[in-house]
Hints:
- By secondary structure, the protein is an alpha/beta fold.
- It has three domains: 4-83, Orthogonal Bundle (Arc Repressor Mutant, subunit A), CATH 1.10.10.10; 90-166 and 271-298, D-Maltodextrin-Binding Protein, domain 2; 168-269, Periplasmic binding protein-like II (D-Maltodextrin-Binding Protein, domain 2, 3-Layer(aba) Sandwich), CATH 3.40.190.
- It contains eleven helices and twelve strands.
- The relative contact order is 0.15.
Amino acid sequence: MFDLGRLRLLRELSHRGTMTAVAAASRLTPSAVSQQLATLEVEAGVKLFEPTGRRVKLTAAGLRLVAHAETILNAVEAARVDMGIVSAEPSGGLEIGCFGTFAKAHVVPAIVRARSRHPNFDVILHELEPEDAVDAVRIGRCDAAIVYTHSLVPRPVDKNFVSRTLVDEAVVLALPAGLRALPANVELTEFANCDWIGGARGSGGYELTSRACAIAGFAPRITHSIDDYELLLRMVSSGLGVSFVPAVALALYPDTGVTVRTPAGPALRRTIDIITRPAVASSPTFVSFLAELPSASAE
């Protein structure tokens, strides 16, 4: 009989390609991952993977077992959820991975409402950036992840997840308070010589800034890398740079004194989705929590 934990590790290996990456996502050491997968090979009685340089390639048998693992793990989770459904009243726990801005604006109030309606229902929040939240759902540490995607920085869609859009919001240009005389719509080229404030290098915010400015015909001088929107807005207001910000950040921090304008060119949007595994998507706990969150379909 196959161990479920080892099947999860094999599934992760198919996504990531290296023992080190699997270990990081699973919070294990690379040697522990290697030992567990070696044991799985013994259980399977066939070669499941082979090294190719620094990466690991699954054999044909390994790929077939990954497909079976997906089915097995989904079936086990569906059974767990089904056994927990004694009545339509949600109970038990739901673990959510979410980035900080949306958690402050929407998830925390949703948790408070859910607890007041369903005393036996407990939602546990983990502050995680989108990539880490998706990893947590895939490996089983979280039941659902709330993630964002910028219009110019699409993310790959994992067909093994169920996804629902919560918010589709505008991304606007935040400028120092002294620029209030500018028209409602501005050309990005007017700020080609300004310092820009972006997210951490490699983040969606950083890539959005680079790509939007590239479309306008220049490379932005991203001087500051800031992920905290309150800090970012206060830096903009103080004249330390200009930045793109989503609508939710302006709603959370309305007193920062920034000037807000719409950039010319392609409309910049940020979509926020909640993703989960198929078995969880139909559970009373998930459905009840989802009802407390905003829905793009209702806007």
